[in-house]
Amino acid sequence: MNILAFDIETIPDVDTGRRLYGLDGLSDKDVAQAMFAKRREQTGESEFLRHHLHRVVTISAVLRADDSLRVWSLGEPDSGEAELIRRFYDGIERYTPTLVSWNGGGFDLPVLHYRALLHGVSAPRYWDTGEDDREFKWNNYLSRFHARHTDLMDVLAGYQPRATVPLDEIAQLLQLPGKLGRHGSEVWNQYQAGKIGEIRDYCEIDALNTYLIYLRFELIRGNLDETGWKRESDRVRQTLSAADKPHFSEFLNVWK
Predict the structure, then answer these.
(1) What gap in Å lies between CA 57 and CA 76, rounded to an integer?
(2) b/e string for 104-119 if b means 16 or more Cβ within 10 A?
(3) In terms of DSSP bridges, do strands 149-151 and 54-65 run parallel, antiparallel, or are they unpaired?
(4) Total structural domains in the chain?
(5) What is the pTM of this model?
(6) How many separate helices (H) and strands (E) can be counted in the chain?
(7) Domain containing 73: what range?
(8) pLDDT of residue 185
(9) Is the Cα torsion angle 143, 145, 146, 150 positive or negative in sign?
(10) Left, alpha or beta for 209 (phi > 0: left; psi -120 to 50: alpha)?
(11) Contact 92, 2 (CB under 8 A)
(12) Averaged over 207-225, what is the pLDDT?
């Protein structure tokens, strides 16, 4: 079975913000501030934008396929949004993996749906609910209660919103490195400063935490025994060590 744990990072879609709120002539920074202010008016507190107003700048993944493990960010640092989304769905077409996320059903996938709609990205395997492959009627990517996409936050909370836990906290509960002091709220400022490399590194750390939590999930539901869980964890350590990248080295140093 192929496993693809993933995470996305987003920034405000300032182009759509300009059209929606009549903000022609303002800079990207000022448009984003206006979008945040508009959102605070709607919510009374939170400025977190609605799903269709996010633009994807990074998709990171951990792919376990055959006897290999790979951790990377899709495309290149200067790749456009359409290319990133196309690569993500092309991977599903190629591998038909079990998608693993943390709040992917609540955020990542709906954002990807809207952005794929915008860019016209075809993904027949992903959208199949049994019309082309009868097995997908009983296990597809779209149903909340199917395992082909496993939203760990949702599943572990028993599908109860009041029981959900942030990724960083459950990672540290399991003595994993967590977010290493970084936070998704920093992404917009990093993007404006041209620090796309740091955004990609941060996103890869989230994907890693998600995958390692999934290994524990596989242990408690009996798909891995203690030996198998240790073997798969060691495979992650070996992969990160061989990559010899600063953010992976930091992750390993914290992951005792």
Answers:
(1) 11
(2) bbbbbbebbbbbbeee
(3) unpaired
(4) 1
(5) 0.97
(6) 11, 5
(7) 3-254
(8) 79
(9) positive
(10) alpha
(11) no
(12) 98
CATH number (domain holding residue 200): 3.30.420.10
Look at the block and give the residue holding tokens 């929606």.
20
- 242: exposed, middle or buried (Cβ count in 10 Å: 0-12, 13-18, 19+): exposed
What are 223's two structure tokens? 């798909």
**Widest distance between CA atoms in the chain:** 61
CA distance 124 to 103: 23
With CA atoms as reference, report the closest residue to 71 among 250, 255, 245, 253. Answer: 245
CA separation (Å) from 119 to 10, 18, 57, 179, 239?
A: 16, 18, 14, 31, 34
- Decide: 78 and 128 in contact? Cβ < 8 Å: no
CA distance linking residue 128 with residue 142, whole number of Å: 8
Q: Which two tokens stand for residue 143?
A: 């149903």
In whole numbers, what is the pLDDT of the chain averaged over residues?
96
CA 200 to each of CA 15, 40, 67: distance values in angstroms, whole numbers, following the listed order: 22, 28, 25
| Cα separation, 149 vs 136, whole angstroms | 12
β-pair partners for 60: 7, 73
Q: For residues 32 and 20, is the Cβ–Cβ distance under 8 A?
A: no
